[in-house]
Automatic annotation (TrEMBL):
One of its GO terms (biological process) is TRAMP-dependent tRNA surveillance pathway. GO terms for cellular component: cytoplasmic exosome (RNase complex); nuclear exosome (RNase complex); nucleolus. Coiled coil: none annotated. It is found in: Cytoplasm; Nucleus. This is Exoribonuclease phosphorolytic domain-containing protein. The keyword Isomerase does not apply. PANTHER family: EXOSOME COMPLEX COMPONENT (PTHR11953), EXOSOME COMPLEX COMPONENT MTR3 (PTHR11953:SF2). It comes from Candidozyma pseudohaemuli. One of its GO terms (molecular function) is RNA binding. Residues 1-38 are annotated as: Disordered. The keyword RNA-binding applies. Residues 40-182 form the Exoribonuclease phosphorolytic domain. It holds the Pfam family RNase_PH.
Length: 293
């Protein structure tokens, strides 16, 4: 019998391991972390990623990714106006499923569209309403300030429209600061839902969640007496929204808005310190060059 000498065979007394045969011990199941359904989530926020716009902010929170760019103040032609005009445009990427699009958009994504869908118009109107009181438009006559919001990623099975709106406002707040446009205060928003006797902040749905409740997104200017500049409320149940629930919703939105503002302030202070260090380093290099000369 001829043998294949091209193969490297093992020793004749080798034993084949018995793979897949149980040793009799029961494997310990891994403990899965419970899915967080409420409470302010961790988020990633950066500004100044590009120089194409006067101000730009990028936000990641859960499955949601947003990009907000601010252009202006830019001069406009035509009749003279004594204050700047302000406009907001929100767009989802064409492949994304928009929240509640069956209700508001009649299930039509309108791929390749030139205009805005009903949901995009609603978000744009809310953001414009929230930020217009904070901008010193009288400082920029015969000018325009334009805000463009791009929803890069969104999961409608876990996120709701009021929740998305609150994070859009928070991202736009940083973009507005990054643009250098003079504002009275930084606008931040919160999201809350009343489900029975419990107030849930930054609520995220699960696939099997069929519970009804009232949701709210509200925006505030903290330095202006904590003035509420915009308000959005939705109810998925048959119960009417009474005064008590409204107070609880606004209180929850105010709590989340305050926490987001603290994080934004910390981020802006960090950027300011880094800028001061760079200026000191440049100054030291200049002094050293002058001393050598």
């Amino acid at each position: 019998m001829n043998s294949d000498r091209r193969r490297i065979t093992g020793p004749t007394d080798a034993k084949t391991p018995q793979i897949g045969i149980s040793s009799g011990k029961t494997p310990t199941p891994k403990k899965e972390k419970p899915q967080q359904t409420h409470g302010l989530r961790k988020f990633f926020l950066r500004s100044g990623l590009t120089k194409n716009a006067n101000g730009l902010a990028y936000l990641e929170v859960g499955n949601t990714i947003l990009e907000v760019s601010v252009y202006g103040p830019r001069p406009i032609r035509g009749s003279f106006i004594d204050r700047a005009s302000f406009s907001v445009e929100c767009k989802f990427l064409p492949y994304l499923t928009q929240p509640n699009e069956v209700i508001f958009n009649a299930g039509d994504k309108r791929n390749g569209r030139t205009g805005l869908t009903n949901i995009e118009q609603r978000i744009s109107t809310y953001v414009e309403t929230a930020f217009l009181p904070s901008i010193c438009v009288e400082k920029y006559p015969k000018s325009t300030i334009d805000v463009f919001i791009n929803v890069v990623a969104f999961d409608p099975t876990t996120g709701t429209l009021p929740n998305l709106i609150s994070w859009v406002v928070n991202c736009a707040a940083l973009a507005m600061v990054d643009s250098g446009i003079e504002i009275k205060d930084m606008v931040t928003a919160g999201h809350a839902k009343v489900d029975g006797n419990e107030v849930l902040l930054d609520l995220q749905l699960v696939e099997a969640d069929q519970s009804s409740g009232t949701e709210c997104a509200a925006s505030f200017m903290r330095m202006q007496g904590n003035e509420m500049v915009a308000f959005w409320v939705e109810s998925s149940g048959a119960e009417e929204v009474d005064e008590t629930n409204l107070e609880r919703l606004v209180g929850g939105c105010d709590e989340m808005s305050t926490e987001v503002r603290k994080n934004l302030n910390g981020y802006l202070l960090k950027i300011a310190r880094e800028g001061d260090k760079e200026e000191e380093a440049v100054k030291e290099e200049g002094d050293a060059e002058m001393a050598e000369a």
